[in-house]
Amino acid sequence: MYTVVTGAAGFIGSNIVKALNERGVTKIVAVDNLTKADKFKNLIDCEIADYIDKNDFIARIQAGHFDGEIDAIFHEGACSDTMETDGRYMMENNFRYSSILLDWCLDQDVQFLYASSAATYGASNVFKEERQYEGPLNVYGYSKFLFDQIVRQKLAQNPSSQIVGFRYFNVYGPRETHKGRMASVAFHNYNQFRADGKVKLFEGSHGYENGGQMRDFVFVGDVAKVNLYFLDHPEKSGIFNLGSGRAQSFNDVAVAAVNGCRKAKSEAPLSLDELREQGLLEYVAFPEALKGKYQAFTQGDLTRLRDAGYVAPMASVEEGVSQYIAWLQQNV
């Protein structure tokens, strides 16, 4: 039996492939679109059984080629560009493709674990997996939101089948280099500091309590662990927030990134005030293009995840970014 990972050459998908390898699973079908070929680098140190283009894969399952041969699908493939304005493309890629896979998994009794998004909450200040708190601000968020509504219907109709959706918050960590402008804040902070000796942040990065922005930043290693937990528990289904459960400022990320770089040079860590005083942090105007389409505050309520039995702690920004910077120093 095969395990399938869609978006396998992408950020979260490749981390799931690596995590499966680390527990001895190599009979993996990697599904992706390598039109942007640089993503292949994410799979160089991974073991897989086959690679199939995403369009070929959907055609093959519809033709019955994989009937009875797959035990689980991690559906991580999607257009994750929150600034994408082509709604037709977004809905075909994110919603319709996912719906076809879901129906096939239900028909074949295959575990279906998929990537939803905290973008489904939009401007809400309450981040519970309940319909009244959901209201996406862009078509990306809507594509994820709409599929979640279909999942809720299917869960009610198929209580014995496993369907698990993960509402990812701001994920950061290894294997996101290919994402360009959509890579995490930690990744951009690292590259800015290496190139310019300082980090640029948007005005308001000091913290939501002072009118700024705070987000739930979650380390990709924790994301992979949660996915595998549910793989191991096919009796558990539902839509779950997957964040750290804490809101931290963009300043916190920048401080951790800069100090990670300083640590590599055996330099002492600096406080936020010290970084400002030395000109290592600089603030720039918030982009007009993001106004009204940007979540100023996110903090995942992990109650439902914890009630499902996942009790391991989630890395803080200080812990996760430190690990990530050390990985970047060695691998990028």
Q: Can you describe this structure?
A:
The chain has 332 residues and is of the alpha/beta class. Helix content is 38%, strand content 17%. It has helices spanning 11-22, 54-62, 87-108, 139-157, 185-196, 220-231, 250-264, 272-277, 303-307, 317-331, and strands at residues 2-6, 28-32, 50-53, 70-75, 111-117, 163-168, 170-172, 199-202, 214-215, 217-219, 238-242, 248-249, 281-284. The strands form 4 sheets. Strands 3-2-1-4-5-6-11 form a 7-stranded parallel sheet, with helices on both faces. Strand 4 (70-75), helix 3 and strand 5 form a beta-alpha-beta unit. Helix 3 packs parallel to helix 4 and helix 7 (250-264) crosses helix 10.
Write the layout of secondary structure elements.
Blueprint: E1 2-6, H1 11-22, E2 28-32, E3 50-53, H2 54-62, E4 70-75, H3 87-108, E5 111-117, H4 139-157, E6 163-168, E7 170-172, H5 185-196, E8 199-202, E9 214-215, E10 217-219, H6 220-231, E11 238-242, E12 248-249, H7 250-264, H8 272-277, E13 281-284, H9 303-307, H10 317-331
